[in-house]
C-alpha cells in the first residue's frame, strides 16, 4: 500500500493508495487531484473513501484499476 | 425546486476504506444521551435536557456470507482492533465508489455484534454491528 503525507503519490493500478490529511476538505482535494491524474492515465477509481481515525487524523483511501 | 433524495442502495457503509460488499440493508444511529437539567426555575412543567455524551453505531445486514468473510468477521470480533467505519453516497463500478457526499462521516469503531441466522434450505444471513469509539467526523 502506497502511503504518503500531503503529496500526490504515484498511481499503480490495483494498489490501494492512502493519503493522510489534516482535514476532510484537504483529503477531498487530494482525492480529486488523484482522480484527475488517474483519468488522464485511463484508470477508473474504486473506493475513494475519506476516513477519520476517531481522534484527529483524516486519510483518503482509493484504488485505481484498468477498465 | 425538487429536493434531491438519496436512494438506499447508494448509501453504503465502508470499513477500512472499502464498501462492505453485497450487503442489502444498513442502519446508522447517532445518539445523544440526555440528562434532566430541570431546576426549580423551569416553568410550565416541562423538562429541560442537556446532552452529556454522544454515541454512534452502524449496522449492516446480509453481508457476504462466504466462508472467507465469516472467518474474517469472527477474527475481527475476537481481535482488539478498531477499524475505520463510516458511510458515504456511492456510484460507479459495483456501486462502490465513494462520492464524498456532504453527509459522509467516519470514525474508529468496534465490531461488537455479529449475528448469523441459518434457516433450513436457505443461504445463511450474516449481520454485523459496529459501535463507534471516539469522535465521528
Gist of the model:
Chain A is an alpha+beta fold. In chain A, 25% of the residues lie in helices and 39% in strands. The longest helix of chain A has 17 residues, at 24-40.
Describe this structure in words.
The complex is a heterodimer of chains A (67) and B (137). Helix content of chain A is 25%, strand content 39%. Chain A has one helix at 24-40; strands spanning 2-5, 17-21, 44-52, 58-65. The longest helix of chain A is centred in the middle third of the chain and has 17 residues, at 24-40. Chain B starts with 10 loop residues before the first strand and ends in a 5-residue tail after the last strand. The longest helix of chain B is centred in the middle third of the chain and has 12 residues, at 67-78. Chain B is globular, with a radius of gyration of 19 Å. Helices cover 9% and strands 46% of the residues of chain B. Chains A and B meet through helix 1, strand 3 and strand 4 of A and strand 2, strand 5, strand 6 and strand 7 of B.
List the helices and strands and how they pair.
The complex is a heterodimer of chains A (67) and B (137).
Chain A: E1 2-5, E2 17-21, H1 24-40, E3 44-52, E4 58-65
Parallel strand pairs in A: 1-2
Antiparallel strand pairs in A: 2-4, 3-4
Chain B: E1 11-15, E2 18-19, E3 25-36, E4 49-61, H1 67-78, E5 84-91, E6 97-98, E7 105-117, E8 125-132
Antiparallel strand pairs in B: 1-2, 1-5, 3-4, 4-8, 5-6, 5-7, 7-8
Oligomer description: heterodimer
> What do the pLDDT scores of chain A average to?
85
Largest interface: A-B, 21 and 26 residues
Spell the H/E element sequence of chain B.
EEEEHEEEE
Radius of gyration of chain A (Å): 11 Å
Amino acid at each position: 500500500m502506497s502511503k504518503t503525507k500531503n503529496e500526490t503519490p504515484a498511481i499503480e493500478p490495483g494498489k490501494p493508495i492512502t493519503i493522510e490529511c489534516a482535514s476532510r476538505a484537504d483529503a477531498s482535494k487530494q482525492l480529486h487531484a488523484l482522480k484527475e491524474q488517474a483519468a488522464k492515465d485511463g484508470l477508473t477509481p474504486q473506493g475513494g473513501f475519506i476516513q477519520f481515525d476517531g481522534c484527529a487524523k483524516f486519510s483518503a483511501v482509493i484504488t485505481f484499476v484498468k477498465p | 425546486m425538487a429536493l434531491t433524495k438519496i436512494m438506499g442502495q447508494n448509501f453504503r457503509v465502508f470499513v477500512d476504506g472499502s464498501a462492505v460488499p453485497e450487503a442489502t440493508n444498513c442502519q446508522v444511529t447517532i445518539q445523544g444521551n440526555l440528562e434532566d437539567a430541570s431546576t426549580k426555575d423551569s416553568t410550565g412543567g416541562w423538562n429541560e435536557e442537556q446532552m452529556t455524551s454522544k454515541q454512534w453505531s452502524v449496522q449492516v445486514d446480509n453481508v457476504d456470507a462466504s466462508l472467507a468473510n465469516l472467518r474474517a468477521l469472527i477474527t475481527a470480533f475476537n481481535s482488539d482492533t478498531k477499524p475505520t467505519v463510516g458511510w458515504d453516497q456511492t456510484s460507479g463500478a459495483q456501486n462502490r465508489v465513494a462520492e464524498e457526499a456532504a453527509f459522509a462521516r467516519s470514525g474508529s469503531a468496534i465490531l461488537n455484534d455479529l449475528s448469523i441466522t441459518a434457516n433450513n434450505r436457505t443461504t445463511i444471513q450474516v449481520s454485523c454491528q459496529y459501535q463507534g469509539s471516539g469522535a465521528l467526523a
